[in-house]
Amino acid sequence: AQSVAQPEDQVxxxxxxxxxxKCTYSVSGNPYLFWYVQYPNRGLQFLLKYITGxxxxxxxxxxxxxxxxxxxxxxxxxxxxxxxxxxLYFCAxxxxxxxxARQLTFGSGTQLTVLP
Amino acid sequence: xxxxxxxxxYLFRKEGQNVTLSCEQNLNHDAMYWYRQDPGQGLRLIYYxxxxxxxxKGDIAEGYSVSREKKExxxxxxxxxxxxxxxxxxxxxxxVGSGGSLAKNIQYFGAGTRLSVL
Lengths: 116, 118
What we know:
The complex is a heterodimer. Chain A is mainly β.
């Protein structure tokens, strides 16, 4: 069975500093990987995805993520954090080989707080 | 949240009552999903549907029911059998396609319904 681990429930960073939100995964075969963001009392918004190709993926709002197959990680990064980046971030994975629509598994989420 | 409308935004359930959460999408997506979100637990899949008139149980289907009579609509009923219904419920949709379509892997979410018990 596939799984996603987000080891940090909470990440605090000062505005203007780089941020990293960690994600590791377990899946049979090759993965599709995703990051979503959730603002309070809202649904999830898609940020970026890794499907194949370049290990460094760029997404919305200046975010990027690096796929590391040997470490089974897909950490979310941003060079300079903004207060408006404060939100709940979810990593998700599904196996490439799966033909089922249901096979997307989410992590438990990491609350990012950017301090002014 | 564009393209997926969930209503109501807030809902209160009395003990022993069934309540229905609405989810409508105008994205022409084949697949639709219902998730339950509890603090610190991420999203858990309740039901999903890949095509009209067909749906499958997710990880926590007990106490819930769904229907998929139209492509655009996937309502969720929280029955009286669900003893701990207080949560934030999210509906999502996606393309279901064959081949190398990358877009099929992205799920789009509604704004959610917060259900509480009176």
